[in-house]
From TrEMBL:
<dbReference type="InterPro" id="IPR000086">
    <property type="entry name" value="NUDIX_hydrolase_dom"/>
</dbReference>
<keyword id="KW-0479">Metal-binding</keyword>
<keyword id="KW-0234">DNA repair</keyword>
<keyword id="KW-0227">DNA damage</keyword>
<dbReference type="GO" id="GO:0006260">
    <property type="term" value="P:DNA replication"/>
</dbReference>
<dbReference type="GO" id="GO:0006281">
    <property type="term" value="P:DNA repair"/>
</dbReference>
<dbReference type="InterPro" id="IPR029119">
    <property type="entry name" value="MutY_C"/>
</dbReference>
<dbReference type="Pfam" id="PF14815">
    <property type="entry name" value="NUDIX_4"/>
</dbReference>
<dbReference type="InterPro" id="IPR020084">
    <property type="entry name" value="NUDIX_hydrolase_CS"/>
</dbReference>
<feature type="domain" description="Nudix hydrolase">
    <location>
        <begin position="5"/>
        <end position="135"/>
    </location>
</feature>
<dbReference type="InterPro" id="IPR047127">
    <property type="entry name" value="MutT-like"/>
</dbReference>
<keyword id="KW-0378">Hydrolase</keyword>
<dbReference type="GO" id="GO:0008413">
    <property type="term" value="F:8-oxo-7,8-dihydroguanosine triphosphate pyrophosphatase activity"/>
</dbReference>
<protein>
    <recommendedName>
        <fullName>8-oxo-dGTP diphosphatase</fullName>
        <ecNumber>3.6.1.55</ecNumber>
    </recommendedName>
</protein>
<dbReference type="InterPro" id="IPR015797">
    <property type="entry name" value="NUDIX_hydrolase-like_dom_sf"/>
</dbReference>
<keyword id="KW-0515">Mutator protein</keyword>
<dbReference type="GO" id="GO:0044716">
    <property type="term" value="F:8-oxo-GDP phosphatase activity"/>
</dbReference>
Amino acid sequence: MSDSSLIEVVAGILYNQQGEFLLSSRPAGKAYAGYWEFAGGKVEANESRLAALQREFTEELGIEVTTAAPWLTKIHRYEHAHVHLHFYRIAANQWHGQLTAREQQSWCWQKPGNLTVAPMLPANAPILAALAIPANMSGHLNTGFHTATPQQPALQILPYQPGIATTTVVYVPASQLKQLANQHPTTNIWAICHNYKQWLEAQTAAAIIWPIANSEDIQLLLTLLQQHPSGVPVMVLLEKSSQPVAQPNWFTLGVHGVIQEQ
């Protein structure tokens, strides 16, 4: 059942050719004035989310967004509003024009994992954490994953081992997620999923890893992503098999990144 009090809001992660993303400050007169955020705004009546995103970027920053890929969704309760946020990723070749502060706001480009402005709008904390995770990693499900290229922020994700101190990021089968989260509430936990039941169990994870070994794995993930056409609640990363399997363009379907099996 939908919550009629929820305000539908769109926000865009706009990239430039250097892989940086745009943040802008909220103008004077608005709630949280001076806080930094991803540009966007409320979806008007009879307006699609993409149309709302395009309108907001034109109104706020004077640029034209040609298309965007749905990514993450979040629900957040502010003092002044209960919002359902739909985040879109806008690649450098999906917008054009000259950035202009049409609402007298400030704006700046930021590198993933290296934020230099503050304060940030509270709802954006998990989005910034997700952006800091490289879109391309390599490794193996049994031993762990790491950043694929030197140009990306260094990150290592290891399988959880009982009795051993947890690192900042670990992963477990989705069935173990709830128990581990209770034991280690401050640990960043990813969940491994192979089917629909595990997908549901993993919706509170920091990210989902979906291993792909055959076309059936691909089709099931496509089905699940299509059930969330406006973005998924958690970030999804793929572990692609070393065996040749035809792959869709996952990034346009809301998948954050790819882990290449070594």
